[in-house]
Write a structure and sequence with these properties.
single chain, mainly beta, Immunoglobulin-like, five-stranded mixed sheet, three-stranded antiparallel sheet, 2 helices
């Protein structure tokens, strides 16, 4: 079955001598693409901080608050995926204790395909500047039409740390937001309007 036509950009990067064959397979629907961008494509250089500004403010998906042309983690598929039933192993953990996350992913389309499940974490109560979100885990899964798989992650204590004003890596008590989906959470631009969902949960770190 040939996939329905839609606006898209196929980025092959450095495909090698079999690149033409691989591109043809995607364009004619013989292969369902599942790649994701490892970088952010900005709309304009005007969105970037001055070159002499050495802070991370406004740079990379972790600190950029604008609307990118194509965000980190973006990619299209010839099928659709739904996320639900997000579960956290605990609503509260102590400093130095990890947490487990699981979510159900379903292929709701008519074609088999790969989905890249992305786990993001946000520290909402930090006393020092921290990223808007940080990628904390990825898993690539293959799903047949209608198939559901449960995907699990483990968030280690070091993934909850911040660098304090003394330059030490510490875990501060407070609330953390977990987001799991096939894309970044919180983006609403046209390029991010993929037919996949994002689910969120919250837990608290105590002393």
């Amino acid at each position: 079955m040939t996939p329905a036509l839609r606006d898209a950009i196929l980025d092959a990067w450095y495909p090698g001598e079999e690149g033409g064959t691989a591109i043809a397979d995607v364009l004619f629907g013989d292969y369902n693409p599942g790649g994701r961008l490892p970088v952010t494509f900005y709309k304009s250089v005007d969105q970037l901080p001055p070159f002499e500004d050495y802070s991370m403010r406004g740079r990379t998906y972790r600190f950029f608050k604008g609307e990118p042309l194509y965000p980190f983690g973006f990619g299209l598929s010839y099928t659709r995926f739904k996320y639900d039933n997000l579960k956290l192993s605990a609503k509260s953990v102590t400093t130095g204790e990890g947490i487990r996350i699981s979510v159900n992913v379903q292929n709701t389309g008519e074609r088999a395909g790969d989905e890249v499940v992305q786990l993001y974490v946000t520290d909402t109560a930090a006393t020092v500047p921290v990223p808007i979100r940080s990628l904390a885990g990825i898993k690539r899964i293959f799903l047949k039409p209608g198939e559901i798989k449960t995907v699990s992650f483990s968030l280690a204590p070091e993934q909850m740390t911040v660098i304090d004003d003394k330059g030490k890596r510490v875990i501060e008590p407070g609330e953390f937001v977990i987001s799991v989906g096939g894309k970044q959470p919180g983006l609403t631009g046209r390029a991010d309007a993929r037919t996949t969902s994002v689910v969120t949960g919250r837990f608290v770190v105590t002393k």
